[in-house]
C-alpha cells in the first residue's frame, strides 16, 4: 500500500510541476502581450525598436578590401543605389585625410596627387538617401613599393609663361606609351581654361601628346593643365614618375597672314590690322610652305649654315637678325637686308619669309612664341609634322588623334560654379 501511495504522490507531484510550468508559460506570454496603460510597448531589454536599413547603399569596387601592391595612381571606384548625396574620404595609416575630387561620371574619386608608396590607406564612401540616413562602405588597401622603372613626364612650357593664341600644350614622355595605355593617360590629363574653351588632346607620336582648343585661344586667357601620371601603370612594368602641373597665360591675339599674290604680310592684334609688311618668299626652286604655322622659337641673332646639307655650290653660311622659326625644315621669318629691293615684288628667298631690317625688329618686338602665321598661295603645301602644325589640320582631323572618344561641348550651360572655367579631360 505504501508503495502505491508513494507512486500516486509522485504522479501528483509531476502533475503539479507540469501545471506550474504551464502557468508560468501562460504568464510569460500574457506579460509579453499586455500593455501598461496604453503606452507604446517596449522590446525585450528595454531599448527602442531596431531601425530599418538605410534606403541608400554604397559599394567600393576598387581598390578591393585588403588589396596589396595597389598602384600609387589609384582612384576610388564605387557604386551607389538610391543616393541623393555621396561623399568619399581617404585616409592614410596615420589618419590624415587625402585631398581629392570626384570625377564627372559620379562613380569615381581621384586624389589630387599620387599616393605614397608602401602606405596603407582606408577609403570610405558614404551614400545618403532621401530618408536622410547614411550607408557606408570601406576598403583598406596598401600601395605598391616604389617601382624601379619610371617614365618621366615633361612639359615644353613652364609656369608663368606667356604665349601666343596658337600655342599648343606639349607634353612628352621619356618612353613610348603603348596604344592600349594611352586612354588611361588621357583620363589623367586635365586642362582648365578661363574663359572656357573647348579643346582636345592629340597624340603626335608614342612619346608626345599635344592639346589645342577648337579655335585659337582667346586673348588673355589663363590655362592650367595637370597630368596625374605619378604611379600610373604605363605598360611593360613601367610607371609614371611624378605628376605635372603647369599654369600659363595667353597674350594678345597677334595673327600674321602672308599672301604670295600680293607679297604682303598683314598683322592683326585682337582683330584689328596694326601693320602691313612687304615680304619676299621662297623662289620657285625653294618655295615657302603654304599653311598655318606657329612661331616655335625666337633668335635675336643666329647663323644659317647649309654648306654641309647643300654643298659648296648651293649652300651658304649667313648671319641672320630677328629670326623666328616656323618649321623644323628651316623656314623662318627673318630680317633680310640684302633682299629689301625685292620685298613686296619678287620671291628670292630659300623658303623663308624675308622682311626688312626695320620690319624684322618690329615683328620681333611684337610677337611671341605661339603666335600663328598663315602663308597662302605658294607652290608647296605645308607638311603636317614639319613644325607645330596643329592648326594646319581641320578640327575633324585633329580629334582623330585622341585616344578617347571626342565629346562635343554641350550647348547647355554646365553645372560649374564658374561658367567661364572649363575643365577638359
Question: Which characteristics define this entry?
Answer:
single chain; 425 residues; alpha+beta; six-stranded mixed sheet; five-stranded mixed sheet; 5 helices; 28 strands; 15% helix; disordered N terminus
Low-confidence stretches: 1-46, 411-422
Percentage of residues in strands: 35-45%
Shape: elongated
Strand order of the largest sheet: 20-19-18-26-21-27
Number of helices: 5
Radius of gyration: 37 Å
Mean pLDDT over the residues? 87
Largest sheet: 6 strands, mixed
The count of strands amounts to: 28
What structural class results from the helix and strand content?
alpha+beta
What secondary-structure arrangement, pairings included, does this model have?
Blueprint: H1 2-33, E1 57-62, E2 76-81, E3 85-92, E4 100-102, E5 108-111, E6 120-128, E7 134-142, E8 150-151, E9 153-155, E10 162-163, E11 169-173, H2 179-187, E12 189-194, E13 199-205, E14 208-213, E15 222-227, E16 239-240, E17 244-250, E18 254-259, E19 264-269, E20 272-278, E21 289-294, E22 297-305, H3 307-314, E23 317-325, E24 332-335, E25 353-355, H4 357-366, E26 372-376, E27 380-381, H5 395-399, E28 422-424
Parallel strand pairs: 8-16, 10-17, 18-26, 21-27, 24-25
Antiparallel strand pairs: 1-2, 2-5, 3-6, 4-5, 6-7, 9-11, 11-14, 12-15, 12-28, 13-14, 15-17, 18-19, 19-20, 21-26, 22-23, 23-24
Q: What does this molecule look like?
A:
This protein is of the alpha+beta class and 425 residues long. It has five helices and 28 strands. It has helices at residues 2-33, 179-187, 307-314, 357-366, 395-399, and strands spanning 57-62, 76-81, 85-92, 100-102, 108-111, 120-128, 134-142, 150-151, 153-155, 162-163, 169-173, 189-194, 199-205, 208-213, 222-227, 239-240, 244-250, 254-259, 264-269, 272-278, 289-294, 297-305, 317-325, 332-335, 353-355, 372-376, 380-381, 422-424. Strands 20-19-18-26-21-27 form a six-stranded mixed sheet, with no helix packed on it. Strand 23 and strand 24 (332-335) form a beta hairpin.
Amino acid at each position: 500500500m505504501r508503495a502505491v501511495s508513494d507512486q500516486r504522490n509522485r504522479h501528483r507531484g509531476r502533475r503539479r510541476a507540469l501545471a506550474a510550468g504551464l502557468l508560468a508559460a501562460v504568464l510569460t506570454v500574457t506579460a509579453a502581450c499586455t500593455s501598461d496603460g496604453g503606452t507604446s510597448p517596449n522590446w525585450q531589454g528595454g531599448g527602442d525598436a531596431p531601425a530599418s536599413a538605410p534606403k541608400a547603399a554604397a559599394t567600393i569596387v576598387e581598390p578591393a578590401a585588403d588589396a596589396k601592391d595597389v598602384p600609387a595612381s589609384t582612384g576610388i571606384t564605387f557604386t551607389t543605389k538610391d543616393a541623393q548625396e555621396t561623399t568619399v574620404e581617404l585616409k592614410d595609416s596615420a589618419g590624415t585625410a587625402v585631398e581629392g575630387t570626384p570625377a564627372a561620371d559620379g562613380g569615381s574619386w581621384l586624389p589630387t596627387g599620387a599616393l605614397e608608396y608602401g602606405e596603407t590607406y582606408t577609403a570610405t564612401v558614404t551614400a545618403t538617401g532621401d530618408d536622410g540616413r547614411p550607408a557606408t562602405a570601406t576598403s583598406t588597401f596598401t600601395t605598391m613599393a616604389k617601382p624601379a622603372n619610371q617614365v618621366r613626364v615633361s612639359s615644353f612650357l613652364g609656369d608663368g609663361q606667356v604665349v601666343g593664341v596658337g600655342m599648343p600644350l606639349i607634353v612628352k614622355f621619356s618612353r613610348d606609351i603603348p596604344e592600349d595605355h594611352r586612354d588611361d593617360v588621357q583620363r589623367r590629363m586635365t586642362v582648365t581654361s578661363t574663359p572656357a574653351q573647348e579643346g582636345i588632346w592629340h597624340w603626335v607620336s608614342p612619346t608626345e601628346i599635344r592639346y589645342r582648343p577648337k579655335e585659337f585661344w582667346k586673348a588673355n586667357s589663363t590655362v592650367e593643365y595637370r597630368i596625374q601620371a605619378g604611379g600610373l601603370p604605363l605598360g611593360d612594368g613601367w610607371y609614371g614618375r611624378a605628376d605635372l602641373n603647369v599654369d600659363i597665360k595667353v597674350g594678345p591675339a597677334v595673327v600674321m597672314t602672308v599672301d604670295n599674290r600680293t607679297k604682303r604680310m598683314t598683322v592683326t592684334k585682337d582683330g584689328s590690322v596694326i601693320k602691313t609688311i612687304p615680304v619676299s618668299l621662297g623662289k620657285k626652286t625653294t618655295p615657302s610652305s603654304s599653311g598655318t604655322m606657329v612661331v616655335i622659337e625666337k633668335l635675336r641673332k643666329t647663323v644659317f649654315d647649309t654648306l654641309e646639307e647643300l654643298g659648296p655650290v648651293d649652300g651658304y653660311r649667313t648671319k641672320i637678325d630677328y629670326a623666328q622659326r616656323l618649321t623644323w625644315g628651316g623656314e623662318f621669318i627673318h630680317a633680310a637686308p640684302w633682299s629689301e629691293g625685292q620685298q613686296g615684288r619678287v620671291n628670292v628667298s630659300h623658303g623663308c619669309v624675308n622682311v626688312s631690317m626695320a620690319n624684322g625688329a618690329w615683328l620681333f618686338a611684337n610677337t611671341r612664341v605661339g603666335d600663328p602665321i598663315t602663308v597662302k598661295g605658294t607652290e608647296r603645301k605645308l607638311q603636317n609634322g614639319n613644325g607645330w602644325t596643329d592648326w594646319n589640320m581641320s578640327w575633324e582631323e585633329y580629334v582623330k588623334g585622341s585616344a578617347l572618344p571626342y565629346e562635343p561641348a554641350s550647348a547647355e550651360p554646365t553645372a560649374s560654379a564658374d561658367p567661364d572655367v572649363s575643365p577638359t579631360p
